[in-house]
Amino acid sequence: xxxxxxxxxxxxxxxxxxxxxxxxxxxxxxxxxxxxxxxxxxxxxxxxxxxxxxxxxxxxxxxxxxxxxxxxxxxxxxxxxxxxxxxxxxxxxxxxxxxxxxxxxxxxxxxxxxxxxxxxxxxxxxxxxxxxxxxxxxxxxxxxxxxxxxxxxxxxxxxxxxxxxxxxxxxxxxxxxxxxxxxxxxxxxxxxxxxxxxxxxxxxxxxxxxxxxxxxxxxxxxxxxxxxxxxxxxxxxxxxxxxxxxxxxxxxxxxxxxxxxxxxxxxxxxxxxxxxxxxxxxxxxxxxxxxxxxxxxxxxxxxxxxxxxxxxxxxxxxxxxxxxxxxxxxxxxxxxxxxxxxxxxxxxxxxxxxxxxxxxxxxxxxxxxxxxxxxxxxxxxxxxxxxxxxxxxxxxxxxxxxxxxxxxx
Length: 409
Description:
This protein is an alpha+beta fold.
């Protein structure tokens, strides 16, 4: 076996600012895929990790879920960040058999049958927000005025949260997932950043108490009253379940819709193709998801000594799975830097793979395709009305501002 490869290009994966400069990021990732597909990264304030950038290696690690575990480090956060994060144990922190049992609590809510019923609500909300675009008078910040609200309303209504609380949940989510970005972060110290998490936990504690006293027909009630082997979930697991549904359930989708619209503006030939052939929407949806890749990376920890591409990985060492890189892998995608609404096959890994495949993937696909199905027939012209801005992150994110001007019917 060969020794560790250290390539400075891999440091980009440990810099939140890297994701605001996509050209530079992809230049670095292209180099890594070619010259150092498994590269060692020691970049404080993060603990060292191995960066895995090839599609085939990301899949191999995802498949080997006993060898590479989610616990204890599923995401890349600084060593001293958010002390309250140690009290979070969501689905992305869990491994089987616990993961399988806890995941099953919400599985039926995202089943094909449940989504068919939810489809009416999704279509109604898509129409509402396209109407809001038209009412805006031909110019808006698409992210802050449209994209963040549409999937938020879908997932909050699924949970059964009162509409009056939606703005608060949006703010808390942005603070939690946007903690690396100065526009969204509540403070700079770990303690200040933890306040958002504590507020969200306090809210869900009250919700749990209400749903246990008076069960209702919503996902929040299903979580609050869930039992595994006859026992209710612990307080930590209950709060964490709400957290992952409420945050990942809308932030990733809003990023994808915003990034998809940007891609269509930047590629007018693809916009024309999709408007001319609405039947391309399923393929276009997958291409938008690949192109944006809202979840940038996940982490795994080796449960025993192993290797990737002949590079030794010791027990206890962490690997970072770069979905952004895997979704531009030249060995898997023809012309990977071309946005192509006709792309097929499209073996992207934006939803992960294996036992941790995204629980809400089908809902996200439905929301994305429904929104663009509603928008494109009514759109006459569209262009940028300023510079798009991306969020600083190492985990989840996309555009935070997309100023556009347009005309609609």
